[in-house]
């Protein structure tokens, strides 16, 4: 049975499993692997179409990273380990667990000072991004991942307020005889990681249980971290037509140190250095994140109903390096003398409660030429932050104790709610594939300010954003091994709570900040060559109005504004090839010219038309050559190149230079009856190159740069027992 038929070929996308009730994708994958000697020429994905389809047949850019690629010789700590192999993505490991990864897609998200902006993150159908678009990649649990899908371009606008794309992680289901395992990893800079797992199926119930602890001293000074993650998933089949999954996950980081950015001179003198204020204020962050979700799917003939519900809480306390001490104040605002009276302090403390759900109906249409499938859905998400701010000192000069919680300076409740209905259609007629959709996004931000004192007035208010985002794709199969497509879509991106929090001069909430709106175009080709090579190529153009950019960064606080127009033009190429049974290779190339398309003022500076968007390299290249001489042994050489990156809008500050680094990994596996053992060795940055791994866009203190580690080694071993 073809997976393109309107029968029970809909994947349990909200359940996060890799299996289908009809099993057709598993069969298709097996056939592709056999034809290519191990290379999956037609991986199945659900992103974009929301029902199972082979990525080769879909008329837009979508990539899938499978379980083997996620786990083969990788550390299992950060999504940056595997996302670099996707064209269009720039993934920067800040070497700072207090701020998380920086991920941008086709230039969207590069301005983010922390976490992920411009892309929607989803795990097992549950958003890992808040309704305002701020996401945390640290919540991805790579130990339990079956695959990661990355959707880019116009089709991603059908997922709401995220112009850059969608990254979905799907955890595996518990199948087969029960088994337990343990793994340990050690490495440079005091890295240790211990991991326990149990999974399988018993009495018709699948289960996956996973727990890990990671400790590191960090490459830079004052950058130590401890991360604890737990995960539990239970799969049930109430009857032959339905399926239920319950998923729990948690992330805990206590006292994660924040080394802040580096000035260029400090970076060159000592790449491990930290800013003086990082030690003075003991900058650090603690996170306690827990969530529970449920996914249910039921078939009614060839139609399917999918339901998702989730709820959770997140507590964050962060100590910043923002001096507003009594007496001479080096951090006093030079523009607005009353700004310090309105300052929200140097300690962020919030408790977030979040919940939401989705309902979706998948309906094949009979009696028409070809295969026509319709999808109707509704997504609802809400987060409520009980947010407080405190001074980061106690006492008076000269007897000041820094890096502790002082007097209250902020007390508010921030609520963000989104409600998005959508409809999609996919129609296959002969060699043609037509796909279109429309989503109507509503995002409402409500602020209830409870801290009103003197010059610090009442910042309470509500702002509502609404936008319809259509997308249309047309694909044509020139031959069974060559597909072409054209995609056009509208997108928008609302400001996040962090971007709304301050207006110019630290003068309270920036209710005047507008969402950015984009029109995206993409033309692509997908080819299978000689039965052992897969090639995906795409060119794209994105025109954006009201791009959200940094207005000013003063006293440790960043305010934002809309910057007129931007233009993104680029080319992406992805190649995977299985030369022989032993040798394979992969390549991901991106060229992106992301520039301002109109002149505008930012603070006291004028940004010229044609300037590059900061944080976006023009060229990114990833390559991998892998060798598997016999079963149970694999080794690979990885290479990564990035061109220079501007750090602020004027393009006059020193750009972070281009760099090329190479990594090597090897993995061994042995089977002894019910026992299986594995060992991993890894060397990163083989040439011990000193380079800037990530940048902080528009940092007001000129600390734009974050050094990447030199040569690093890692060694791990694990054992598994199957009952």
Strands, helices and their partners?
Layout: H1 24-36, E1 44-45, E2 53-54, E3 61-66, H2 67-71, H3 80-83, E4 89-92, E5 102-105, E6 119-123, E7 126-127, E8 145-152, E9 165-171, E10 179-187, E11 191-202, E12 205-216, E13 225-236, E14 242-257, H4 264-269, H5 276-280, E15 284-300, E16 303-319, H6 339-342, E17 347-365, E18 371-390, E19 393-396, E20 399-402, E21 408-429, E22 432-449, E23 461-479, E24 482-493, H7 497-500, E25 516-529, E26 533-545, E27 548-554, E28 557-562, E29 565-578, E30 583-596, E31 600-602, E32 605-607, E33 619-627, E34 633-642, E35 659-672, E36 675-684, E37 692-695, E38 705-707, E39 712-722
Parallel strand pairs: 6-9
Antiparallel strand pairs: 1-2, 3-8, 4-5, 6-7, 8-9, 10-11, 10-39, 11-12, 12-13, 13-14, 14-15, 15-16, 16-17, 17-18, 18-21, 19-20, 21-22, 22-23, 23-24, 24-25, 25-26, 26-29, 27-28, 29-30, 30-33, 31-32, 33-34, 34-35, 35-36, 36-39, 37-38
Structure, explained:
The chain is mostly beta strands and 723 residues long. The chain contains 7 helices and 39 strands. The protein has a 22-stranded antiparallel beta barrel. Strands 3-8-9-6-7 form a 5-stranded mixed β-sheet. A hairpin with a 2-residue loop joins strand 31 (600-602) and strand 32 (605-607). The chain is globular, with a radius of gyration of 25 Å.
């Amino acid at each position: 049975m073809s997976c393109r038929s309107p029968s029970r070929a809909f994947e349990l996308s909200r359940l996060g499993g890799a299996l289908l009730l009809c099993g057709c994708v598993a069969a298709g994958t097996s056939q592709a692997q056999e034809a290519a000697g191990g290379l999956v020429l037609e991986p199945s994905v659900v992103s974009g179409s929301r029902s199972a389809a082979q990525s080769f047949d879909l008329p837009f850019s979508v990539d899938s990273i499978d379980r083997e690629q996620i786990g083969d010789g990788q550390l299992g700590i950060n999504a940056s380990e595997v996302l670099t192999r996707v064209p269009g993505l720039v993934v920067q490991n800040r070497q700072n667990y207090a701020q998380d990864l920086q991920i941008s897609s086709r230039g969207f998200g590069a301005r983010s000072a922390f976490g992920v902006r411009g892309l929607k993150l989803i795990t097992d159908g549950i958003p890992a991004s808040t309704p305002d678009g701020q996401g945390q990649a640290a919540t991805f649990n790579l130990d339990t991942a079956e695959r990661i899908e990355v959707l880019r371009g116009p089709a991603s606008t059908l997922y709401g307020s995220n112009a850059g794309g969608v990254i979905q992680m799907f955890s595996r289901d518990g199948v087969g005889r029960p088994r337990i395992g343990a793994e340990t990893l050690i490495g440079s800079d005091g890295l240790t990681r211990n991991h326990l797992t149990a999974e399988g199926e018993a009495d018709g119930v699948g289960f996956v249980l996973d727990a890990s602890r990671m400790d590191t001293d960090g490459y830079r000074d004052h950058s130590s971290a401890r991360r604890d993650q737990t995960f539990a998933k239970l799969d049930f089949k109430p009857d032959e037509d339905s399926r239920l999954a319950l998923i729990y996950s948690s992330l805990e980081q206590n006292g994660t140190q924040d080394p802040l950015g580096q000035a260029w001179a400090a970076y060159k003198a000592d790449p491990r250095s930290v800013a003086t204020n990082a030690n003075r204020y003991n900058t650090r962050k603690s996170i306690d994140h827990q969530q529970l979700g449920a996914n249910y799917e039921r078939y009614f003939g060839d139609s399917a109903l999918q339901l998702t519900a989730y709820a959770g809480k997140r507590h964050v306390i962060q100590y910043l390096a923002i001096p507003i001490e009594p007496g001479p104040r080096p951090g006093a605002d030079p523009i607005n003398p009353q700004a310090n009276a309105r300052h929200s302090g140097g300690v962020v403390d919030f408790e977030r409660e979040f919940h939401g759900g989705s309902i979706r109906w998948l309906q094949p249409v009979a009696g028409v030429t070809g295969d026509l499938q319709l999808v109707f859905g509704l997504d609802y998400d809400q987060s409520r932050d009980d947010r407080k701010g405190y001074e980061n000192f106690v006492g008076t000069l000269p007897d000041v104790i820094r890096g502790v919680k002082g007097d209250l300076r902020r007390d508010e409740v921030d609520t963000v709610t989104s409600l998005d209905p959508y409809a999609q259609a996919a129609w296959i007629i002969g060699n043609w594939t037509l796909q279109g959709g429309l989503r109507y996004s509503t995002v409402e931000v409500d602020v209830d300010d409870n801290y009103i004192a003197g010059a610090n007035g009442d910042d309470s208010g509500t702002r509502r954003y609404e936008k319809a985002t259509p997308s249309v794709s047309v694909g044509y199969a020139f031959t069974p091994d060559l597909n072409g497509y054209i995609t056009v879509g509208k997108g928008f991106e609302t400001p996040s709570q962090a971007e709304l929090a301050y207006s110019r001069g630290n003068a309270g909430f920036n209710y005047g900040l507008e969402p950015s709106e984009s029109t995206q175009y993409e033309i692509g080709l997908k080819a299978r060559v000689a039965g052992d090579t897969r090639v995906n190529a795409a060119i794209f153009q994105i025109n954006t109005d009201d791009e959200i950019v940094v207005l000013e960064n003063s006293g440790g606080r960043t305010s934002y504004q809309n910057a007129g127009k931007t233009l993104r033009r680029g080319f992406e190429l992805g190649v995977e090839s299985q030369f022989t049974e032993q040798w394979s290779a992969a390549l991901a190339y991106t060229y992106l010219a992301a520039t301002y398309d109109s002149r505008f003022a930012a603070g006291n500076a004028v940004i010229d038309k044609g300037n590059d968007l900061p944080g976006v390299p023009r060229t990114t290249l990833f390559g991998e050559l892998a060798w598997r001489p016999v079963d149970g042994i694999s080794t690979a050489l990885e290479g990564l190149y990035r061109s220079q990156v501007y750090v602020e809008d004027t393009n006059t500050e020193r750009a972070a230079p281009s760099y090329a680094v190479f990594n090597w990994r090897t993995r061994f596996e042995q089977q002894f009856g019910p026992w299986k053992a594995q060992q991993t060795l890894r060397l990163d940055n083989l040439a011990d190159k000193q380079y800037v791994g990530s940048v902080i866009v528009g940092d007001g203190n000129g600390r734009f740069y974050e050094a990447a580690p030199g040569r690093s080694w890692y060694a791990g071993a694990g054992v598994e027992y199957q009952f």
